Amino acid sequence: MSERYTIGEAAKKLQVSTRTLRFYEEKDLVRPAYTEENGYRFYEKDQIRQLELILFLKELGFSLKQIKILIQDEHGSQSLELLLKEQYQENQRKIEEVSKKQAQIKHLQKIRLSHAVLTNHSVITDIMRKEHRLSTLRRRMCFLGILLVLGELMGISLLYAFKVQMSVAVIGITVVGAIALAKYYYDHVEYVCPNCGDVFIPSFLAFNLAPHTPKFRKLTCPKCGKRSYCLEISRE
Question: Which of 130, 16, 102, 30 has its CA nearest to residue 71?
């Protein structure tokens, strides 16, 4: 006689509830090997294997509708290959969505804004909306910065290879370029005070002299008067 399991034993073996097995039966996914007159359901190895397959596919993200089509399809291997491809693409899309949300959460964790800012939903929305534009601006600044460094190297080379006057002119142009680059960046950013949530634009001098990190600059808020590391965001 083949090994058999009551619904309770099968549920325990598969680490699911008896309600789940009854649900699968109602959906015509896996029926017990047989049911006795008293209503007791019994499962055998074939049904256990089917249930293990269903649970495995569910863990991979397949819907019960997809699993049912797969089980009932005569060309199961071909259907499985197609469904695996589709599910892989769907899972990748979900991973990308979760990754974006994780990046936003990580960014908000770094901000460490006060309660005044957290209760101002419009400020938080603006911060997240402007993050992409700020990233684009920084990439552009990196490119322009590289060009500026190349200009400085050219000026130093000319210092040794040609007349000093020409080198001084090139270095002068480079300095002017550095100031113009700083002004360009300044004109595209503003700052959020972590204490009162005010969004403000400092003077160009304060902007250049303030200590800073890649995302923060130590400035004095014109509204609350406190000097602290303010979050840098993109201007409209």
Answer: 30
